[in-house]
Amino acid sequence: MTTKSAVREGAGSATTGLSARGVTLSYNGAPVVRDVSVDLPTGGLTAIIGPNGSGKSTLLKAFARVLKPDTGTITLGGADVHALRGKQFARQVALLPQNPQTPPGITVRALVQRGRHPHHTLLRQWTPDDDHRIAEALAHTGLTDHADIPAAALSGGQRQRAWIAMTLAQDTQHILLDEPTTYLDIAHQYDLLELCAQLHRQGRTITAVLHDLNQAAHYATQLIVLKDGRIHAEGPPAEILTPGLVSEVFGLTCDIIAHPHLGTPHLIPHPQPRADS
């Protein structure tokens, strides 16, 4: 069953955001995402969820222009993203991929500075605004005191925050995050999600691939639920996140209650019988 719901009022106009229409994506000729049409409305905080192998990261890469669709189009403000110049696109959309590779010997500050590259041209080189954006990104991610040490000397969680800082320094309207809570302890996971919520409230468009359904339900204004490379459901968490959907998509029986503090949907799994019991 596919459930679709209107995007929450006030989340922004879909026509000015990133959109997919009839998109099919493949690896080595094998389709992973099939005939997907969906919008990432400007000003929304969208979580893409689904089982392993459902095409979440693949779809995010298509929105980031990393993968070109076999069929269909990805558009930004109505323009095909593959018709835009590289820096023109990068000034509007930033991607934090899974497991980014840290260049050897680079300091945290130098890594974060790379986020400013799309804003530089032959006529516009480094300015005080760049310094401000770098300082702001370091402060947001709690890395100001680590700015001048090698990124390789950081813990895995700190290194992930350094990459997030680089993404923030890019200062784009759209931020795409592929499993951004990887390597972060529980406190820093929620710190990051609170930062995403803050950026969203300030008008940024945030889209994140997440595995934790409760985190997705608590923070997202819109969920996109993938199963077998297709959209199974989309809409506000309170409207589409039900025990039936969780059972259909994840094979998990659960209750959904209102979070006692936030009022958002909160999933409580039932005890699951073991296959060998």
From TrEMBL:
PROSITE patterns: ABC_TRANSPORTER_1, ABC_TRANSPORTER_2. GO terms for biological process: iron ion transport. Keywords: ATP-binding, Cell membrane, Ion transport, Iron, Iron transport, Membrane, Nucleotide-binding, Transport. It is found in: Cell membrane. Its main location: membrane. GO terms for molecular function: ATP binding; ATP hydrolysis activity. GO terms for cellular component: plasma membrane. Pfam families: ABC_tran. InterPro entries: AAA+_ATPase, ABC_transporter-like_ATP-bd, ABC_transporter-like_CS, P-loop_NTPase, Siderophore_ABC-ATPase. The keyword Cell membrane applies. Residues 18-253 form the ABC transporter domain. It is a peripheral membrane protein. This is Iron-dicitrate transporter ATP-binding subunit. The gene is fecE.
